[in-house]
Each structure stands twice: as C-alpha cells, then as structure tokens.
Amino acid sequence: MQTGVNSRAARREQTRENILEAARQCFCETGFDKTSTRMIAERAGVAEGTIFSHFETKEQLLISCVGEQMAATIAQALHTMDPEWCFVDKLMHIAAHRFAQIALRPGMWQVLLQQMVFSPRKGAVHDLMRNSGLIAAIRALVEDAQLDGEINPNLDPDQIYKTMMALFLFTVHEHVSAQNFDCEDMCATLREMLEVQVRGIWMRRPELAA
Question: pTM for the complete prediction?
Fold first, then answer.
C-alpha cells in the first residue's frame, strides 16, 4: 500500500513540474495575458482542469513558476557563501545567482515585471519574495552585519532590506529595458549602487570620524 501511495505522489509531483515548465515556456512566448490555461495544459499534456488541481489561479501558477526556481537558487547561494565575506560581497553573491537565473530565461522576468511589479495584486511581490526565502536571507545578512558592527545597528533592518530590494529591482528593470541580460553587467550595475548606499549606513571608523 505504501508503495502505491508513494507512486501516486511521485506522479502528481511530476505532473506539477510538467505544468510549471509548460507554463514557463508559454509565458515567455506569449506573455501572461495571451497565455491561456488551455494552452499550458496542451503543452503539458494534461487536461485543463488538472492545472487547477495544483494551482488555484493563473497568477498563482506564475508566482510558482518564478518562486520555486528563486528558492532553489537562493538556497544554493547561501550554501556556497563564505561567512568571512563582507556584507556587500554576500549580497552580491546572492544577486549573482539570481541574475544568472534571469539571464537563462529573461522572458519570465519580463512577464513578472509586467504582471506583478507594475500592476500587482496587493502583496503579490512580497509573497513571492517571502516564499522564495529571499526576505529571510537578506534580513539575516543585515542583522549579522549590524551585530558585527559593519552596519549601523541603530537603523531598522526592515528599512535596510527594503533599500537593498529596491536596488535589485531597479537593476533588473534597467537591464530588461535595455535587453541586456549579461550577468556580469547586471552585477556591476547593482554593486555600484549598493556601495553608494552602504556608505550611508556603514559604521564610521574612529580614524575616519576625526
């Protein structure tokens, strides 16, 4: 009996993955509005109703398409991060993993920007960032840097986090607009802005305060 249960669970998970991959392809090719769940179902080789047994709405499907890949990428970035790096280098390590993922399938991020960032359901972007683990990852880096004296401990970690995310989204928007998805170029854009911002929240060294 247990083997049968496991087999059904595996098939259901595989069906879900097939739907997600089909949706990614369709969204990239035709955009969010012009992609119907029927199109996705045909490409995934399932009945249209099967999609809604896994995802309540087409928006939730889009969020899952991006969010689950983000979660895996962030987990990998955290696993390969050197704890001795400075705050900026740690942030850039996470960003580089995300930018590399965006470069592989830029159409998905274009759809996300159009559908969720510029005309979002209230809370959709926050939900995506939270569920992917990105909010927790950045907040932990901020709090560690404050404890280490690398960042001013009197500043609200939430405000620092929001500043970092604003810079990330600005970088993505700039490169989407220019159709330049080169990972190194995206990292250079973000690092330049990040270092300018960090100068404003960095702890003043005694020798510099004199």
Answer: 0.79
